[in-house]
What does this fold into?
Amino acid sequence: MAKNALKSLLVSISLILLTSCSIPPTYSRKKIAKTLKEICRKEFDLDIEINAWDSGETLWIYAPVKLIDESGQFNYDEKNKRWNDDLLKDMRKIYSAINKVLLSIDRPPKFYCLITSDIEKIGLDWYTLVFLDDERKYTMQSAVGYISSQQINQRIVSFNFRDSKALGDKTGAHIHTYDIPMGEFISLLAEQKLAQAFASIEVSENFRIRDLAVDYTDNKLNVILDIMIKKYKEELPLPLEKAEEIIKELHSAYPEFAGITEVRISDVFNDKQQTLKFPKPKNYSSDTKRIDPGTKTLANLHRAIFYFSLGDDYYKEKKFKKAEEFYKRTVKILPGYVDALNTLGLFYLEINETKKALVYFEKTLTVDPDNLTAYENLGRLYIIFGQHEKGLSYLERILKIKPDYIGIYYIAGFAYSGLGQYKKALDYFQKSLPRYPHKEKIYQAIGETYHKLNQDALALTYYKQALAIKSDYPGIYLDIAETYTSLGDLSKAIINYEKTLAIDPDSFTAHYSLAEIYFLTKQYKKTITYCKKAIKVSPDFPQTYIMLGVAHNRLDPQKADIVYFKKALRLDPENFLAQYYLGETYLLLAQFDKALLYFKKTIKVNPDFADAYVGLGRSYLHSNQKEKARDNFKKAKELFRKQNNREARQEIEEYLRLIQ
It folds into this structure.
């Protein structure tokens, strides 16, 4: 809504002023940039410093205005449908100065491109490209070729581009200026009109844009449309016919049509093509200006933004391959598009391709060495890798540049927690509270840290504060359940695991933890129930099969079964617990040779596992190999002594007496 409103703001102010301002004596084209800046400062008393560049047939104007409010949103009141008064005032002054100069200059340029930029909050450039003859035709109502307000609204190219390099740039040093070819203007208008026709909210359920591009080269337009028709309605436009209509409309609006003599339209989805031929205009010299690939031309910016938005759409639908395709096409068109590089990094992080994520975050810093978001993402990534000190090194760079950067203390808290510096972690989490928007996450993090410090009463206090903010947050219920388990209050732990499952029925941790609690309390039927639920959510975790197998065997030793332990070993061939319980099961089944085999395998993987030596001793005892049984019982007794396990040592003494 705010984007459309801004375009309306720019267009309407421009048109109002064009029809109302008086035209002073003619200005000189040679001093156009200097004159425009002086008029803004001296005659219109503009607080902000605008900049201007004269590039061939294009005048570029840069104005750092307050497009974004303190919360990072457009400076627009959605409720009252109006822009901030200060912003409106500044825009009126800027347009007054532009029109005063351009409508009374000796040699007017063909275009002007106004870039209004947010340089304080998020870094946003809003481009508005105007063909000056269109404004003259609208303003001078008696002139030949007069156009209406509706027509001129449709002849202005307008879009925004988020650029971190805009932050702090008062002079527009990050703007790429060049002489815009008429053919590029035509292609931008055509692309904009096609996008409006097939990507608007009104027709979103009917069409799916899979590609849309209008390229201008050597006095030819090449229109590529890959638009899937999801739900056909007779009154809706068809891609090929609509493209043909738009091209003919533009040809009629601009008689010179940039010297374009041929337009090729390809409807990929319907496998149709159409070629339109136009006569070469009289006295028209070929437009030899070229658009360099990879530079920040308006055509590349517009296309990159469009592909980036398509990538976002596919990502929201969890169509990750298509999202990846369009994100990559974005950076191919515009290799220096920082938002796209960062987004590709986050995309790969989300799908657990962390090495690729690292590559794109590093590429972001290559393009923009002071990009705080890239430093944050790299810090997060190394913390996820467990390289906490390296993660902190990236976060510390942010603190040097911007100490009040939102969320940085929160992330640093996790790094210090990972290093075992829990008191410092608590300090950083507390520092993040005033500015971080999701305070429930901070309270949760503080609670987790107190839990690690074995201060479970304090941990529960902070978890409850988190719940007071967001009562349906499943992660907090998990933490509360684990804390109650540590305190030995298993009934409250069960209650909170069940609350987790009420919010998130597919929580593996909740299912598995409930199975563990019921196993510890010897409620084997419930253990089996929750093990099976955990397996349904995550079938590749071997420990679940081990617990399920043990629960089955203890519930009915007469029906001892090896199937679940075998499954665990297929998932993890070195899992010593699976090998141990296979030995135990074969011992129950009186298959002593197999029991011996798996107890030995257990010891090979884990030589300090005392229970495996007990199993070996029992197997040898049943096989009447008393000396080997005695040796293994003694080994088990020594290990239990080191572990201070008196009860197990007493059990071993009983076995040793049996042998004597």
